[in-house]
Amino acid sequence: DICNVRKLGKRLEKEANKTAENKDNWMSSSSSNKQVKSTLPDDITPKQIEPVNTANSRLSETLFIFDDIWKKDHYKYLSFAKKSISTSRFKYLENELDHHCIRLQENLTDDEAIELLALLAVNDNDQTLHQNQVKTLGQNRAVKNVIDSCQGLPLAISLIGRLGLKTEKEWNQAKDIIAKKSAPTKLAHYDFNLYGTLELSVDSLENKRLFEQLAVFKRVSIPIQSVASLWDCEKSEAHLHLIEMNNKSLLTYDEEKCVLHDLMVDYLQQRLYSHNSNQDYRKSLNKTLIDGYRNQCDGKWNTFPDDGYFYPNLIYHALIAENDEDLQSIMTDFDWMKHKIEIDRTIYYLECDLTDYIDYLKKRKERKEKRKGKKKERNKIVQGSD
């Protein structure tokens, strides 16, 4: 079990997969439970699974890599693996009883942090410029205070490095915000004001509202087509905004899709929902996304490009938005259904969407009847008092 590590899982897989006889198969934990279930039979009995285990004589020779485990309870589902390597950013003491645990350095050393800050500040391959910047930053006490304040967390150092801090006053102002103990919200298990560190970077954006809206998406890669729909703009315009956000290390963007760090998603959701009515704002944000999708395809849902996000998640977002008109339009659009089945290569996900929609209609009906009942009770009370 390897703790305090990021992006190591696929590097381990690459090494293990160098020989021709090694093969790999990835299943993302970000997939919905329904998606995982769809790959398995509905009912598995011990009698059914016995020949499978017998036939797979190489099971004991197979190396399983479980990447980025976030919850302690998930380890119990992995006990079938005879040989395995798991990575997690958290250390669970119970694992030391029956696992060989390697705890990697979680944070950057002062020298590593200064190297990273210099790299981000210079943005040039000139080694002389880079070394001069390393020397300048290393001699600045305010820079050292900032590194200490954010405990050398790589994400925080990357964000700070993109702020373009020049003067000692600017560095000290950043340090005061990061070191502030009365943070409005504590993120993850970090003792310093990570919330304030992220806020510094987000507030430096010219269009921070656009960045905040990205909190509407699931924690997966977000295609630029869906981002452009959310922002109701052309892909070329969305591209420019995403480049700016990428340059500030707020997300990772490769011209096809963007990815937000999980801590950044936590920050955005806590920041937005703390300033607004949680349910109302979430509903409004999802409505904005659905409106954007509709505008992009002129209400012809089956004509929207298959960007890898739209078809699996359209109903999910429409249900949160409680967008009855669009929900009815989509769920009675046989061209959309046909296209979704073709893209998914199974009817299963459409069945899931239909089930969720039916459950949604039942709950709305129950709430409506409940409101009617309360209204009748109030009328009876009023009539009785007369």
Automatic annotation (TrEMBL):
GO cellular component: cytosol
MF term (GO), any: ADP binding
Region (Disordered): 18-46, 367-386
Chain intervals with Basic residues compositional bias: 367-378
Gene3D superfamilies documented for this protein: 1.25.40.370, Helical domain of apoptotic protease-activating factors (1.10.8.430), Winged helix-like DNA-binding domain superfamily/Winged helix DNA-binding domain (1.10.10.10)
Domain APAF-1 helical: 284-366
GO biological process: apoptotic process
InterPro entries, sorted: APAF1_C (IPR041452), Apaf_helical (IPR042197), P-loop_NTPase (IPR027417), WH-like_DNA-bd_sf (IPR036388)
Name of the featured protein: APAF-1 helical domain-containing protein
Species per Swiss-Prot/TrEMBL record: Trichoplax adhaerens
